[in-house]
Amino acid sequence: MNFFFTNRFGNASFILYSLVWIAGLCCVYSQVRGQEEYHGRATYETGGAAALTTLQVNLKTVTTDAEGFFKIDLSSSPKAMEVERRGYRIKRWGVRGKELDVLLARTVYLMNGLVTDEMELPQSQIEVIFRQEKEQLKAITGSDGVFHLKVSPEFNFAQPFELLVNQQTIPGENISFLDDFGFAKIKLLPSSNPSKPWVVLSEKGEPVAGKEVTVNHRVFQTGNDGTLLNWNRETIAGTLHFQEFQVVRVDSGTHAIRVYVRENAIVPVEPVLAPVQKKETVTGLATIDKQNTEAKPGESQDIVMDFSAIKELLKQMEEQEQLDITLIHQRIEEVAGALELSQALTPSERAYFLSYLERLQSLLNARKQEFSFEQEQTQALIDRMRKHLSEKDSLQLLAEKHLERVRFEQEETVRQFQKELLVVSGISVFCILMTLGFFVISRRIRKQKQEIVRQATDLQQLNALVLEKNQDITDSIHYAQTIQAAILPDPKAIAEAIDDYFILYQPKDIVSGDFYWFSHLPANQNSPAKTLLAAVDCTGHGVPGAFMSMIGNTLLNEIVNHRKINASDCILELLDKRIIRALQQYETENRDGMDVCLCIIENLDRDTRKVTFTGAKRPLYYTIKDKVEVIKGDRKSIGGLIYQNKSFTKHELVLKKGTRLYLTSDGYADQNNPEYKKIGSRQFKTFLEEINTLPMAQQKSQLEKRLRNHQQSAEQRDDILIMGVKL
């Protein structure tokens, strides 16, 4: 390292800063480009890809492919997202790095439609029902055969559905959809009376008899009831030309097609209007008619003048009982035509027109009985004007949104320009700083190199010292293990008193807080020979636990071997007092202690053994006919001052020769696996029931194997101790 820095520092610094400078230029170039490519996918909330769907990201349009994927170049991070697909809205969208995730959900939208008969004539007052599973859409056609449906999100025209018109099922070939299910054209089934006559009537509904009518350049005569004579189906859909009459409207009824006329100059009228196809953008605005977008100068002023004239006529209607409402109807029709040609109205003009419509509506309702026929025609015109006023208002909203979009794009352009200007200006500053930084950092690197070398030397020395101390501590603990092993019972002494046994002893660390204890009292004049066994679990593990185990082992030897106390309950009671005294727990806050399982075994005769058990928070497991039984110890520990003047329970059992006893600490049952699931006392008991008939050495092997299988890679949690004894 020293050689590199001292002899090759100049070359290395030059290469390093060249790379940094090139990387900086690359960053600047990417910023100057100003465009970042984003990838994304649009899906439906019901699952599946949103294929061939147009999205707007920051007012920039992109269309998804057949799998719903798309990519788009943006000059800034995505801030706005819209979908241009009828019946769908954006439920949720998000950005992760350069990935866009768009979730679409169905929404309510308005669908328009037209119902015609087999001769393409609009049909009024027709009930239209779309039915799909539990969903149903219902509408009634107006006087022009047009209906409007509010389509719920649950209804999907892309799925099979049933169409009923006046409760009659219409086949699929009689319905066609336009503009992505925004417009539906329905043709009724052929009438049971395919030869419906044409009847010419005056505006008041009186037959026009004995008149010549030209249809598709063919002349027909009307009968006494106004019926066209000698007509055929091929002439129906043409343009009507009347001598001395003007066509007001054409009404296709159930039994006849009625043509209403008025005396006037010869004016050609188209009786059937094709539906205007509309293009919608799903942005929360109403549907806008893209046709008729050219406005004429002074057009709104002319319309206002027409309404003013109508206002004067309405005043005359209020003052006079007899007034020719035909003139009012004619003027309203002219205003309606002007509205259809207009592009947009100002808010004041729109409010002006609507107020007159409401006034006209109320006056017509008041004259309903006197002018029922004329009112029907005028009411249709009022509805027509209301519809156009609504469309003009929607067009104005669309224009406002377009202006807002233009402003947004202009602001975005300004921001992009400022961003590019800032980046380009930063190039010069960057180059200057790189030049200055080269000299400053090179000097700093020399100093840092020297400091790093010094620190590395110090760390190596500290590491060597830590390793040395760690080795000393480990050696000390290993020596403590030797001392602890020396105080444990001699296996030969245990084998002389017990024919068959095993001890599973596995410290968590090198030394253990668990220990096993053994003592054999030979027979005397007052009592038979007794074998005492104990499994003791001291507070803590490692070195602290090992100190406690040495104290416990010493006190048990003193109580039993020197003081000759051989009653199990008395042994634990005296052990509790001696632990409290030894640890000075009355004078200090020390609350350490130990849990003990103590057994005393006596031979009553050749085949019978007496077992006396006392437990301090530890149970005794024993077998009867290969079933494992449990005697729970008292819920008190040795030491700890939790209870004053503790007393322990003595349990006496008379068992047959060959019975197995198991004394344990809690380490085996509390051991967890990598999922932190313990073996548990219940599972431990099940293990013993499965293996208790095996020889004691094999039982130890099985317990070790099952512990390894359960523990796997998990760390050992506590010291483990199990003593198995066969009587």
Automatic annotation (TrEMBL):
Pfam families according to UniProt: SpoIIE (PF07228)
An annotated Gene Ontology molecular function: phosphatase activity
Keyword Transmembrane: yes
Protein name: SpoIIE family protein phosphatase
Domain PPM-type phosphatase: 496-727
TM stretches of this protein: 12-32, 421-441
Keywords per UniProt: Hydrolase, Membrane, Transmembrane, Transmembrane helix
InterPro entries membership: Bact_Sigma-Reg, PPM-type-like_dom_sf, PPM-type_phosphatase-like_dom
